Amino acid sequence: MTTPDTDDGQAQLWRITIPVIASASEVDALTDRLIETLCPDSVHRGPCPISWALHVTDGNSLSKAEQRRLREEIADTNG
Description:
Blueprint: H1 24-38, H2 64-78
């Protein structure tokens, strides 16, 4: 995990990327859980305490080289 050497408490933009190999229904369930983690109170007033956006990309829309790279990352992570 990459984090700055010091944390000054100021919010800054981050990008978290999680490539997965899963069925469409598994991705739906996973994204639902991520949303619940980021915003556990879906009926709260005002913005979420942590501002966020979620993007899901079908791997078939990626170049073959990018698909290969992500599959290698997954293999490395999972041993």
